[in-house]
Design brief:
Layout: H1 3-15, H2 38-52, H3 69-87
């Protein structure tokens, strides 16, 4: 299962229980459309940190990193790439 699929499943389970993951477009603006509010963003960030074993730093708290499934997937990929470069 891809990271995007895992992210979609989480968002649907927590915020959109009337949908299936396949009904959630990867580019839907979760913040602009009111799917996730400010508390939801905090919950989402905590899940990303735990699920993908990443530390979301203060500089990464840009809403654009968590605006859509696509953006979250890209953020996870960038973070993993950066951690493998700095961790190696």
């Amino acid at each position: 299962m891809s990271n995007a699929d895992q992210i979609s499943e989480y968002i649907v389970r927590e915020f959109l229980p009337d949908l299936t993951p396949s009904q959630l477009p990867d580019d839907q603006d979760l913040l602009g459309d009111g799917v996730i509010d400010s508390l939801g963003v905090l919950k989402l960030i905590a899940w990303v940190e735990h699920h993908f074993q990443l530390a979301v730093g203060d500089t990464d708290l840009d809403p654009d990193n968590f605006r859509s499934v696509q953006a979250i997937d890209a953020y996870v990929a960038r973070s993993r790439g950066a951690s493998s470069v700095t961790g190696g």
